[in-house]
Amino acid sequence: MHVIGEAKGIKLYAPKDAYFSYFNSPYFGHSHAAAIDIYPHQQEWGCSVISPVTGKLVRIQKTMMGRKKEFPTEQYDFGIAIQPEEDNQAIVRILHCNPSLKVGDSVVRGDEIGSAIRSRYFNYWTGPHYHIEIMHMDSFARSTQSYPLDLPFRFESKKVGRLLATVEFLVNKVTEDSILGYPRGLSHTTIDGYTGLSGISNGTDIVGILDGGISHYKHGGVIGQEDGVEGSTIYLEKNPVGTIKRSLKGASFFLRNTSVSSNLEGIELRGLSCFIYPKHFVKHDVSRLLLVPSRYGEFVGLISEGDVCELKIDSPNNTIKAE
């Protein structure tokens, strides 16, 4: 397992074959670099959730969710608290996991602790994952109280090469929820064995890996960029996606200020979902990219696995106010 975040002396680990995100979510912890979503490589609902720490399971909270959605979901979600061995006043809170253990059980980092739930808190394009964060043990029910994380990524900026607006997209999988595939020709960046779309500063320098929903969420981050200048612009290829608001340890955080539009074979997409991927999700130095359809099920029957489609990314001259 690999360390992907740390706070208060507690390290959080992810399986080597899982991908993950800090900022690709609209919820509070993901706009404050205080939470991580880990996506197991199996990418199936009900797949195993792995403990990110060694410690003791001290609390389980079962929550009935709201009304049904247009896609299949579970009726209940769960919150799990593990007290890490490093600090008896802290907990690691894990969400979206149906626990297979009980309160009082000891766990070792890497142990299976339950299975991934499709929560009604998700959007239709959200894949199987579990959410982790570190907080004081008295803050279990308060999602705004998780500790900001230090991220273990550093990247020395380098000049960007050719930037493209239109590329070939090799389709890997099509579902009602999303289109998965590999964009041939977009700039990619690798840090410590993890790869993703390049975050470009002011149109000239690659400064890290883009992490976020472009542009269906109001914020995002650049992993590896520690010296981002407040007010400077972050780009995806030639397209401005946001303005840096603050630098963090191991990343910079930006707010969306322009709308990046994208389409596949001329059909408008809701957005591009950018993650940090291990080698398991990389082919010929190109990391996987998740395309979000404008409507649930829109691409089923239109394109198929193995198709090579045209993906176009553009920036209309309109500014969207962050929600």
Structure overview:
The chain is an all-beta fold. The protein folds into 2 domains: 2-139, Glucose Permease (Domain IIA) (Distorted Sandwich); 158-314, no CATH class. The chain has no helices and 28 strands. It has strands at residues 2-7, 10-14, 19-21, 36-39, 48-50, 55-64, 76-84, 90-95, 97-99, 106-107, 112-116, 130-136, 158-159, 166-174, 179-184, 188-191, 194-201, 205-214, 219-223, 233-236, 239-248, 251-255, 261-264, 267-274, 282-283, 286-287, 289-293, 308-314. Strands 13, 14, 15, 16, 17, 18, 19, 20, 21, 22, 23, 24, 27 and 28 form a 14-stranded antiparallel sheet that branches. It has a 7-stranded antiparallel sheet with strand order 3-4-12-8-7-6-10, with no helix packed on it. The protein has a 3-stranded antiparallel sheet with strand order 5-11-9, with no helix packed on it. A hairpin with a 4-residue loop joins strand 18 (205-214) and strand 19. It is globular, with a radius of gyration of 19 Å.
Total number of domains: 2
N-to-C SSE string, H for helix and E for strand: EEEEEEEEEEEEEEEEEEEEEEEEEEEE
Kindly, what is the distance between the CA atoms of the first and last residues, rounded to a whole number of angstroms?
36 Å
Number of helices, counting only DSSP H or I runs of 4 residues or more: 0
Q: Tell me the total number of β-strands.
A: 28
Low-confidence sequence ranges = 317-323
What is the molecular shape?
globular
Query: What kind of sheet is the major sheet?
Result: 14 strands, antiparallel
Instruction: Please state the structural category.
Output: mainly beta
Helical fraction equals: under 10%
Looking at how many chains there are and whether they match, the oligomeric state comes to single chain
Strand content: over 45%
Average pLDDT, to the nearest integer? Answer: 93
Radius of gyration: 19 Å
